Amino acid sequence: xxxASFDYFQAENVEQASRLLREYGEEARVIAGGQSLIPxxxxxxxxxxxxxxxxxxxxxxFIDKKDGCVRIGALxxxxxxxxxxxxxSQLPIMRDAAPLIGDPQVRNLGTLGGxxxxxxxxxDWGPVVLALEGRLKCVGANGERELEAKxxxxxxxxxxLQPDEVLTEVVLPVPGAKSGGAYLKLARRTGDFAMASVAVxxxxxxxxxxxxxxxxxxxxxxxxxxxxxxxxVVRGEKISATVLKEAAxxxxxxxxxxxxxxxxxxYKREIxxxxxxxxxQIAASRCKERR
Length: 291
Ligand SMILES: Cc1cc2nc3c(=O)[nH]c(=O)nc-3n(C[C@H](O)[C@H](O)[C@H](O)COP(=O)(O)OP(=O)(O)OC[C@H]3O[C@@H](n4cnc5c(N)ncnc54)[C@H](O)[C@@H]3O)c2cc1C
Prior knowledge:
Elements: E1 7-10, H1 14-24, E2 28-31, H2 37-42, E3 50-53, E4 63-66, E5 69-73, H3 78-83, H4 85-90, H5 92-97, H6 104-109, H7 112-118, H8 125-131, E6 135-140, E7 143-148, H9 149-152, E8 153-155, E9 158-159, E10 166-173, E11 179-186, E12 196-204, E13 210-218, E14 225-226, H10 228-234, H11 241-254, H12 265-289
The structure holds flavin-adenine dinucleotide.
């Protein structure tokens, strides 16, 4: 199947991309790795008349650390995250997620920024960025602004980006000592989207009491889900089977998974519960490794 015809622009910088997006409004779309947009265009789920290709813009593909945060350029592909030593040492939860995305071809072309802007409810980066309390930098005609990940996702395949805005960078605070994170996903087969997924980022004190927790869930509703209600049960407590069971129950209450070929809503809720308990145990064990 071929996409409908479109005009194509190669932007040289973010300002030019934003100008083109403003000029052509709702009829224009950014294209980055094309791993989600091209299939959507082939199925006529997206019918942009103008594509603004941002892949050639210099300075949007990087992973570095500054002011206590890991910063990842929007054009950084999944494979670079998977192979980054900085990610492995500072944000192991991202190292969990990267190799679970699609197949090597998808990971070589698909970008972190594209995945977040595509906002697939079952995507892998949404829950991770939520659990890490990430921030998303975007640039539009009115200049630069930063959005918190928890405010970014509006609905399935819909974000708070304005039509003329380009996501440029994802900023992730590096958790301190005695912190650990884990991401778990259940898929029908390797490379498939999640039936359900859970990201847990924990900080424990010397006595093993939870000081901080971020929980993100995928395929748990129309957007990636942050679950403050479940986090509240764990914060201030030692990690135990009883505490995690109650957190899992609250996650399943907060979730409203979309029933589809990957499973019924009820089944996905059960998976979410199991994944939360396992991910939290792994995160807690990683806290002990990171002093
Ligand atoms: C076979 C297959 C399997 C896959 N499996 C998984 C999986 O298991 N888990 C998973 O999470 N994902 C999966 N994906 C999706 C993959 O991760 C994509 O790479 C990602 O969703 C989109 O990234 P992209 O760079 O290709 O974006 P594109 O397809 O180029 O763009 C996607 C959307 O984001 C917008 N956009 C892109 N970049 C920006 C930006 N910087 N600023 C503003 N808007 C932007 C575009 O306008 C478009 O609407 C799969 C894809 C395929 C084809």
